[in-house]
Amino acid sequence: IRHLLSGADLDADTATQILDTAAEMATVAGREVKKLPALRGRTVVNLFYEDSTRTRISFEAAAKRLSADVINFSAKGSSVTKGESLKDTALTLQAMGADAVVVRHPASGAPHRLANWVDGSVVNAGDGTHEHPTQALLDAYTMRARLGRLAGLHVAIVGDVLHSRVARSNVLLLSTLGAKVTLVGPPTLIPVDWAARAGVGSVATDADPGTDVCYDLDAVLPGVDVVMMLRVQRERMNDSYFPSAREYARRYGLDGPRMRRLPEHAIVMHPGPMNRGMEITPEVADSPRSTIVEQVANGVSVRMAVLYLLLGGNNR
Ligand code: CP
């Protein structure tokens, strides 16, 4: 593949190749030799129009561990504040020799537009409420590392699914890799098309055989291998839409008693950043079942694999 814009860009073989390559990268990174020469002479641009901690830093760490040159661009403090367009910004960065552009943007579809304008590879690092494919890859990597497989796993994705690019990319990738996904949340925070397609509370239709929808978290917990809690994205809601924090936590927050309803082997995930006390309590976030810190560490290996396969693999 030339670009990574969506979970739908990945068939099972390509996704597995990325996860296997990430496992090799993790082995290298865990040894004394922390740097590989694979992308020496290549330039990776991090083009961030939206805030980020994990994604931006881990792409930077990944590119540097592969010996690439890294240019970090943040819209704040740039000529974007003077009205410069995404296209002109991208062409400016390309003129400085970008081989890959890692882009985060509040507008859904912005990375797809960018891919038409630049010669290099484009990686979607989160576009609006649309997709975040490298987050889904690192989540899949973490599930496979902890539970030994992806095919046949039952994954509950819980909370503000409506505004979640993480949920959308996970649904696409996990379905491709043979896992079953149940989306759980209040009806106002589940996309109507997914609820309609799945039939609420029932097994999904042929159109989307791996995904169903349930509004009752307590009913779902005893039967899952993975519970992935999502942040309630206040910044994407207007006030009338925003649920009361206490009511939300009571019905959809993962606390200690709810965690103990999970099967013994089940893990708890969260892409971060967390609203501690709302969708997840500190007791759960910091428990041995939680993979939240592992997800961040795995993100570096997965992003190394993505950059390596886009820039250093068979494509060039
Ligand atoms: N999970 C995630 O995308 O986190 P950041 O917004 O900090 O990059």
UniProtKB/TrEMBL annotation:
The molecular function terms in GO held by this entry are: aspartate carbamoyltransferase activity
- Species of provenance: Micromonospora antibiotica
Outline the subunit composition: Heterododecamer (2C3:3R2) of six catalytic PyrB chains organized as two trimers (C3), and six regulatory PyrI chains organized as three dimers (R2).
Q: What is its EC number?
A: 2.1.3.2
Q: In its UniProt entry, what is this protein called?
A: Aspartate carbamoyltransferase
The record, for HAMAP family, names:
Asp_carb_tr
Pfam families, per database record: OTCace (PF00185), OTCace_N (PF02729)
Record-listed L-aspartate binding positions: K82, R165, R231
Q: Which residues form the Aspartate/ornithine carbamoyltransferase carbamoyl-P binding domain?
A: 2-144
Give the enzyme's main class according to its UniProt record, as a single word. Answer: transferase
Q: Which annotated residues bind carbamoyl phosphate?
A: R54, T55, R104, H132, Q135, G272, P273
Top-rank lineage group of the source organism: Bacteria
Catalytic activity as recorded in UniProt: carbamoyl phosphate + L-aspartate = N-carbamoyl-L-aspartate + phosphate + H(+)
Q: What does this protein do?
A: Catalyzes the condensation of carbamoyl phosphate and aspartate to form carbamoyl aspartate and inorganic phosphate, the committed step in the de novo pyrimidine nucleotide biosynthesis pathway.
Keyword Transferase, does the record have it? Answer: yes
Q: Which family does it belong to?
A: Belongs to the aspartate/ornithine carbamoyltransferase superfamily. ATCase family.
- Aspartate/ornithine carbamoyltransferase Asp/Orn-binding domain residues are 152-310
- Record keywords: Pyrimidine biosynthesis, Transferase
Q: In which pathway does it act?
A: Pyrimidine metabolism; UMP biosynthesis via de novo pathway; (S)-dihydroorotate from bicarbonate: step 2/3
Keyword Transmembrane helix set for record: no
